[in-house]
Amino acid sequence: MKTTIEINDSLLKRARSVSQREGTTLRALVEQGLQHVLGEATHRSAPPAIESLVFDGTAGFTEAFADASWSKIKEESRRR
Q1: pLDDT (tens digit, 9 = 90+) per residue, 28-77?
Q2: Which of 12, 17, 19, 51 could be stapled to 7 by a disulfide with Cβ–Cβ 3.0 to 4.6 Å?
Q3: Using an 8 Å Cβ cutoff, are 26 and 16 in contact?
Q4: pTM of the prediction?
């Protein structure tokens, strides 16, 4: 299938250089890159569960934030 893509000039220059050095085509290089990225995507694990730091869902704030100011809670949420 034929398609058109826009590629950053410096990236395209590097890709052409690699394809010439390896004696392959730009098309083959792009296909290899896509296969690599798509292969990795199928092996990625689910993102880690987010630990509840502020609210436990039943009894309000966790002990660490029971007497915390709103600014402390916001600060902690931004750090995570």
Answers
A1: 999 999 999 888 766 666 666 776 665 556 666 777 777 888 888 888 87
A2: 12
A3: yes
A4: 0.49
Same-domain check for residues 55 and 35: no
Backbone angles phi, psi at 55, to 5 degrees: -130, 125
Q: Cite the DSSP H helix spans in the chain.
A: 9-22, 26-43, 70-79
Position 17 confidence tier, pLDDT thresholds 50, 70, 90: very high
Tell me, yes or no, whether 28 lies in a domain. yes
pLDDT(12) > 80:
yes
Give domain status of residue 80, yes or no.
yes
Given a contact cutoff of 8 angstroms between Cβ atoms, the answer to whether 54 and 70 are in contact is no
User: What length is written for the chain?
Assistant: 80
Structural domain of 34: 9-43
Phi-psi region of 25 (alpha: psi -120 to 50; beta: other; left: phi over 0): beta
